[in-house]
Design goal:
The structure is a homotrimer. Chain A has helices spanning about 1-5, 15-20, 40-50, 80-85, 105-110, 130-135, 150-155, 170-185, 200-205, 215-240, 255-285, 295-300, 300-320, 325-345, 350-375, 380-385, 390-415, 430-435, 435-450, 450-460; strands spanning about 35, 55-60, 75-80, 90, 110-115, 140-145, 165-170, 190. By secondary structure, chain A is of the alpha/beta class. Chain A is elongated. Chain A starts with a helix and ends in a 27-residue tail after the last helix. At the A-B interface, helix 6, helix 9, helix 12, helix 13 and helix 14 of A face helix 1, helix 3, helix 7, helix 8 and helix 13 of B.
Amino acid sequence: MSHLTEFKSVIFMEKTSTDAFPSIIYSSEKQETVCIFGTGDFGRSLAFKMLQCNYSIVFGSRNPQKSSLLPHGAEIFSYSEAAQKSDIIIIAVHREHYDFLKELTEVLKGKILVDISNNLKINQYPESNAEYLAHLVPGAHIVKAFNTISAWALQSGTLDASRQVFVCGNDSHAKQRVMDIVRTLGLTPLDQGSLMAAKEIENYPLQLFPMWKFPFYLSAILCVFFFFYCVIRDIIYPYVNSKKDITFRLAISIPNRIFPIAALTLLALVYLPGVIAAILQLYRGTKYRRFPDWLDHWMLCRKQLGLVALGFAFLHVLYTLVIPIRYYVRWTLKNRTITQATAKTQDLFSTSTAWLSDSYVALGILGFFLFVLLGITSLPSVSNMVNWREFRFVQSKLGYLTLILCTAHTLVYGGKRFLSPASLIWYLPSAYVIALIIPCTVLVIKFILILPCIDKTLTRIRQGWERNSKPTSDGQYLKQSSIHLDSQL
Amino acid sequence: MSHLTEFKSVIFMEKTSTDAFPSIIYSSEKQETVCIFGTGDFGRSLAFKMLQCNYSIVFGSRNPQKSSLLPHGAEIFSYSEAAQKSDIIIIAVHREHYDFLKELTEVLKGKILVDISNNLKINQYPESNAEYLAHLVPGAHIVKAFNTISAWALQSGTLDASRQVFVCGNDSHAKQRVMDIVRTLGLTPLDQGSLMAAKEIENYPLQLFPMWKFPFYLSAILCVFFFFYCVIRDIIYPYVNSKKDITFRLAISIPNRIFPIAALTLLALVYLPGVIAAILQLYRGTKYRRFPDWLDHWMLCRKQLGLVALGFAFLHVLYTLVIPIRYYVRWTLKNRTITQATAKTQDLFSTSTAWLSDSYVALGILGFFLFVLLGITSLPSVSNMVNWREFRFVQSKLGYLTLILCTAHTLVYGGKRFLSPASLIWYLPSAYVIALIIPCTVLVIKFILILPCIDKTLTRIRQGWERNSKPTSDGQYLKQSSIHLDSQL
Amino acid sequence: MSHLTEFKSVIFMEKTSTDAFPSIIYSSEKQETVCIFGTGDFGRSLAFKMLQCNYSIVFGSRNPQKSSLLPHGAEIFSYSEAAQKSDIIIIAVHREHYDFLKELTEVLKGKILVDISNNLKINQYPESNAEYLAHLVPGAHIVKAFNTISAWALQSGTLDASRQVFVCGNDSHAKQRVMDIVRTLGLTPLDQGSLMAAKEIENYPLQLFPMWKFPFYLSAILCVFFFFYCVIRDIIYPYVNSKKDITFRLAISIPNRIFPIAALTLLALVYLPGVIAAILQLYRGTKYRRFPDWLDHWMLCRKQLGLVALGFAFLHVLYTLVIPIRYYVRWTLKNRTITQATAKTQDLFSTSTAWLSDSYVALGILGFFLFVLLGITSLPSVSNMVNWREFRFVQSKLGYLTLILCTAHTLVYGGKRFLSPASLIWYLPSAYVIALIIPCTVLVIKFILILPCIDKTLTRIRQGWERNSKPTSDGQYLKQSSIHLDSQL
């Protein structure tokens, strides 16, 4: 309940908790005593916070001497003395120094040891720190917790990102007691199951958007390529040909060519692995064979690809909407008008141009609208509210509709110029023509795949049927029902 | 913890789990043995996944013969043999074939039976499959789980939509053990209480946006009606009258008339049931009588109505912002300027037109801004963060402010033309005039309802007072306090 | 599982639950008997709902006489008689009338008392109602629950905001039983730990956006100040000087000056407390001293400040994009063109103006894009998905990049006019010049703070090092690791 605890007063370093909350009299019933091994910064921060919540704290240390750094109210003892005073011992010591715990095996027997350590690198050790600890002190109940919390968040309790405390352990009673402490401290415990989860929990705080790396680099490459492509066609060519300096186009015109291309290409790349997977399954005649690694990885980051594409589409919309505000556009419009007015000529109105212009814009708007809908549906809290059937409907049906609309938007944008030789510059077609290759390919293959004859085979394969196998399962067993069956989006 | 498990390697069909994770040595402590009745696709997928998480799997089958389809590492026995090897038995068999379980009553006594079945239609059977199972095997502990998960999601673990596993059952210990398995598989168990919830859990994956149907059809009808209305006024009339072909207006101009009308009407329809309910309560003099079914249903889908309205408003904003980019608009502007320049005349600047134009636009922007705020507040994760008082403040106060601003936006848009006979075409008023009927009605009734004398009576009724009843509750009992009291929005 | 329960039929006041759900036969197993003390509106609403879910209800009352108001199926007894019929007693009585419970101490021994009361003011009593109840009836197990639920929500079950039931209590078994009831009623119980949390739970429904107050008032003051500033410069001055009536500027032009200023200033104020905190820590040479209260409070509402700033930025974008649609703008453009066409003169194209105009717009778009990204990341469901390192990356790195882009946008907007004496009006500089003061200050200080020499000291301080203390912690103890260490954003 993050919103409740936000209003808990931040920690009073120089005061005891009873001073800080003089009004809480009935509630000041003493909580249990907790022992902390290690007097480093994180151990002290944890002690501060726990003292504030009415826990009694004893520190265990190699040199049990009072220090001004220790929070007021905590006591300090030798390791074994401290351990005897509490059932729960928090190990605020680096993994490399866990060895001393081996000598305490006897006194730690049956106690709850809370491993709060982190590593410096992902998968630094073959086994997680918590599992290593369980190995060192076999008689104790090991619980992994608190490693995703920062000391500062403990003290201030402000940032939503730091509220969640992942907890795992093999002894459910021990885990429950640690989760109670987490909750009392105003944090949100999340039960992650057995100690097997410790490795993931230890890797978790070290990650920096791992699923976003591939989409990020891919879109960076796309942008750089199309940037140079457009610079050659739109800036260098006019300069070479007619010595015109139109470098100011770098600020808006060129980006507004790159962004829609990147958006459309990435959107198509969201749906490409799905059709590749379908082709593979048709070719192999079974779904019980693993896809190649690159395809698996690609399919895993489709959501991220889609969101990056949405970002580019959003930028494209903004860049397009500011067009009439730009000095260059206003200047051009004014001067053309003056020239015509001076010459007393008027353009004739072309209904077909009006149709092309309006439907190109309308297709773009509708495509963007559906794209935003897809983006909203991929918000975790929204996608948790929809069931599998609804999710597939949105992500697959609406997704393909978005792709169709955006492709049509680009095709109509080309309009009469599309593929006309006159628009070649130095044998280079317009950038948007290149951008259409992948989306059109995806749409054509998808269209073939949903032809009834092919779709029927594919559905059977996905329900567990295999081309080269005699049927063993008699009808009574649960197949992929129509609900369970997903079309791999 | 969906973000952690996303990085679990996808299942290796041809490998055993120890090959897949060679580094996990400490954590490979064997989990318990689980029995699966049925070797269909879903049972096999579940077995694959559980083997990967170090469970031992025994299949129970009518024909217990080894099959190449079965995952490596699983054993297969007859039903009763398999059941004896495990406390937990997953029933991966269609409901129509549950009968054979009756004969196993003795061996299943005290065991945990996990019902994972789904139906083909909502409310297909009078009682849920899980309750039917409980009826067949009275001595077993029935737990409903896994039915919302797709086999594909089990294998890849990618899609957020499929992470949640609803679990229900009457025996809390049995439920807890199944939830532990769910968690170990990297999924998120959600405790739904007793087996009474099974029916809902079984219906859940079959639904396709049930709350969105009414808003969807209503807005479709609105759009179609106003489409033909606008086509008659804006395209057929000019064609009949002056033979002008302006069909290109179908792409942008006509939608941009329909969308704001749909948005405003739907927004008003969000607040209409609230005022109808208030009138009903005032008329009846009590809140302890049920509203008619249509009103109940209407009130239940107000959020969806509002979000559809927001969608239309968003489209209206985009369609409006592209106006200056349109070929038709640019052509008209240029030609008028040339005509005037040739004639050497200039329009006089009209301050009142400037006021009308600017305030109409400003009201629209502010209305849209508040509308977006309302939309954000209705995101599940945001609405979970606000309390009842805050939610009412946003949805009721800000909601009515939005309605007022959008209605005013439309009124000022009409400006001097509003209700002028000159704007009638074939006796048809402009579409926006029709669009104003419902919003203005709602606002006028709401204004009457908040007059002090009426509001006081309404508040008393909502606090439990009844006009035709002698007071029984003496003051000491909890009424609707000011916090609990909601104004039905 | 809010989406499941939404489809539960709303309560049938005149029917028993078996009529309402004739199809549920297997599931109608009787739930336990629950006693409710008090026959006020909330007690009755709760009883209706619980009867619907197959609980048996007995009311306890001072005057145990049948009333037509009581829901059909409930019985009514004297307090002590009613209490004997159930383990769980819900106290639907105002706190001021709790005294009568003292006389029932004997019969309430070992029972579960559920305190559902609310207060009229935040912190109305020194201790929470639930703790007061625990004090009055020492032998009973007190559980706090249901106080955040409205009676209306209980009956209709529609609104997400009212689904969450915060539960706390010292006896975990008693708490579990109450949470089971909550779940059976279709609501979501959230365990808040021990009875110490009751005070917060009771304050919770009384709050009205407490964290938003400071940002709201601050932005109101900013807006009012800059409104008068701009009115003086842009409306009064032209009127005094040249008798021009340009009051129509109040609708769009003036707001579109105020909103970007408010957005930029508030965004800078999000990052100002961080640099102040860093300076304080450098000056004091320790992190173990509390920041002044005002700084603490400021840091706690940075998220809200940022979101208000985003709101202003969003309005600024909309107000800017409608510029070409405005009558005033179109009129000016047309008349200038006509004037020039009549005079047969043309402006020369200025490449530097094109550069300035385009890059000013491009910087604004990119800044707004990042700003929206920051806003999306602060959605609770998104920020729960990112770890501490990722959150810091987004909020700190991307946040400062946003600030830099928006500041640059404003600087380039000024362009050649920036700080030129000609733009002074009555000695007042343009409003945007004033708006640049805080952002530039923050950026300069931040730039100094990340110089290697200063950054190194700051990092050591934040890892627990103190300038005026002898080192006590030897290396083995957990310091703020690189992951835990946050830069206070």
